[in-house]
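Lab notebook, page 48
Experiment: co-folding of the full assembly
Goal: obtain a model of how the components sit together before planning crosslinking
Operator: M.T.
Materials (sequences as entered):
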Amino acid sequence: MTGIEKTLRYLRDSRGRQLENLCRYLEFPSVSSLPQHAHDLAACARHTASLLSGAGLTDVKIHQLDGPPVVTAAWKQSSHRPTLLIYGHYDVQPVDPLELWHHPPFAPHVANDRVFARGATDDKGQILMHIHAVEAILKATGSLPVNVIFVIEGEEEIGSPHLEPFLLANRDLLQADLAVISDSSMWGEGMPAITTSLRGLVRLEMTLTGPQSDLHSGSFGGAIANPLEILARMLAAVKNQDGQILIPGFYDNVKEYPESMRRQTGALPFVPDHFLEGVGVGQAWCEKGYSILECIWHRPTFEINGMWGGFTGQGSKTVLPSKAHAKLSMRLVPDQSPDDIADKTMAFFRSIVPPQVRLDIHRPKGGSPAIRFADDLASFQAAKKALSESFEHDTYMIGEGGTIPIVAKLKDLFHMDTLLLGFGLADSRPHSPNENQHLPTFYTGTEGLVRLLHYLS
Amino acid sequence: MTGIEKTLRYLRDSRGRQLENLCRYLEFPSVSSLPQHAHDLAACARHTASLLSGAGLTDVKIHQLDGPPVVTAAWKQSSHRPTLLIYGHYDVQPVDPLELWHHPPFAPHVANDRVFARGATDDKGQILMHIHAVEAILKATGSLPVNVIFVIEGEEEIGSPHLEPFLLANRDLLQADLAVISDSSMWGEGMPAITTSLRGLVRLEMTLTGPQSDLHSGSFGGAIANPLEILARMLAAVKNQDGQILIPGFYDNVKEYPESMRRQTGALPFVPDHFLEGVGVGQAWCEKGYSILECIWHRPTFEINGMWGGFTGQGSKTVLPSKAHAKLSMRLVPDQSPDDIADKTMAFFRSIVPPQVRLDIHRPKGGSPAIRFADDLASFQAAKKALSESFEHDTYMIGEGGTIPIVAKLKDLFHMDTLLLGFGLADSRPHSPNENQHLPTFYTGTEGLVRLLHYLS
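Observation: model returned without errors.
Model output:
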């Protein structure tokens, strides 16, 4: 029996414990964007460290930062073999709207071959697959075919504001030939995929202030600017009817995406109606001239993530409010700089705000440029083989509209490429109520990662 | 000593008890728009009844309705004298944003010649002035120079949805020659005013639904319509850059207001800069071609009272939300019908909503048309004399941008005119944090009401 065979048998015999591990990991409410969860993040970091120790990794370390800690662990006993940097994150998105969850988001619920909980797919479930793969190889064969270093952080969901100084301060520890990250999606159930592009991200928060306090809309309405109305006008001015963004200079550095990617994207078995049915809308809302996948993977966006002001409770209050607020984010494509786009967007809003209200706009910490990899890298071909064999299905090369800040940072700081092997499904619901992990994918994906470590050696 | 003199002496000797009465009345959190305050409204109605009994009125009755009760009381022993219907309301606006209050809104705080509490001026303070005036005349002289019937309701702040059936069912009880209402403002401190016009009101609530649940703005942004963006576009489409409302037919029944009112309004000692400083803004935002006072008193409005959706908490969540909400209201001028304007506005939004989102829009109960009175009514001249003597200052004839639903209903159902004598000041802050009652105005205004009852006899 080969090392791979021994390892796969070990994995199949230990699925019960893998499921227990997953459920336990998902119980931590490690929401990085909410300050009240700081101690949950710390506890989740300690638990992550214990999972890595239990897997047989050495040099397990919890690095204290200004934000939630980073956990690292290594196995570097194959001195002539390549070294992989396996990255993941133990923090999760907030859970609201809580009322739409069928079960409490931090009390994992197993049903229909799935585990439902916040973080089940993004990203605790996926980083755990890597831990299980390494643990199985070590337990079944006594050593790994490659060297590995795990880096598991706790603020990916807020744009990884402390990651760059951490990477720079730990350059020696983190030396590796390739990064491997599972924080994206398959093409479909049973259809593996390698992601070759990610969009970037930059966020802004704005507040408009009109009168110094809320006013009676009868006694003042008609003569005093309503900040909610001004906010609506300003946000409506960002795009034209074709969905193009009108912020001056927004597209300056945007190039058409490569012809090879265009061919790949066009050849994917994508059914727009299935995609739209999955999210419950009848029609797409795309930038003119681009398909759905192009808009999600290869075009930048301007999105209103939150907007509020005035009386929002039950009943009524006929108020002319003092303030209006919005949380905004832009997804970026290659060659758009987060700094530049933030500056241009803030300048745009400053140029259109009328004198009757005061605009306060700022950029929260974090943000990341976009990245694209050539899809003919040798490591990508090894990964294709590992996944295709495990899932018994061809592996697609796809894009991803989301952002994983470390990928651009590794390229920029260490010239390191990243292999993005995602195991999310269309109905995994990351960032949404009823996020879940599909267990057959969880088990088979782990087998794919075992093969990957062997094929990359 | 005349009856008036005896009564004024009685009033001046009982100011301590008047202040106690005011503070006690303001302790009831009688917020009609919030269902959780139903029992507070009932308790406040009972307290209102006890105040009326204590004043020497008879036939005190609490009328149970589907909403908060109406309290009535009468004194009808002068069979050949006119009868006044004195109306007020014991319900108040919500208190949020609570953090802007310097003292708890239902723990009255006396400072700087003022009592700070929700309802201090709108309308508990003002209805209490009428109760004190009647009480003083009865205690000082044994009888009233006119007949009175008090009607004090508990849902004025939500548009008085049950008032019309109450009026129709109690037509005999409510027979009167003139209504008198104090729920508006003076021209300034020490400068009395009679209000000869009120705007109407109609409210709408709308929700836009895009995807069936909140989505990851990276994985879906760019191809799926964001309901917050659509809401901003739809609300921005309501007015043009000149502040004119573009809802088809909105101005169909709007006539220019009377030349006599234009002359009166133009002659008032109005200082725009003082008005703007009072609310803390540098510039007005008026419909093109109209002055500040014209915009507030004589032009209709479209106002966003509340707007919300997506992630509004601390921190960030890069979500493409499922829903976006808005609470809207329109102030109306004479000949605009609330039904018609609500229908036209809903039709407008239905005509511009794109197919990617679902629009749910409805009109909450309540609403009122606008009203204007001729300012040469004999009763208005009697009131001018009473106020001018008490405040030792000329009385101005002014307009009011707010809405008092019963005024239009009394005219429509009973052909009854209403004398609007308001005692609010520019810094009374009705509907806003730190609402307050100016005590010198409270005491002198009550003396004006004593004179008024005599001069109307």
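Interpretation: Residues 84 and 209 of chain A are 51 Å apart (CA to CA).
Next step: discuss with group before ordering constructs.
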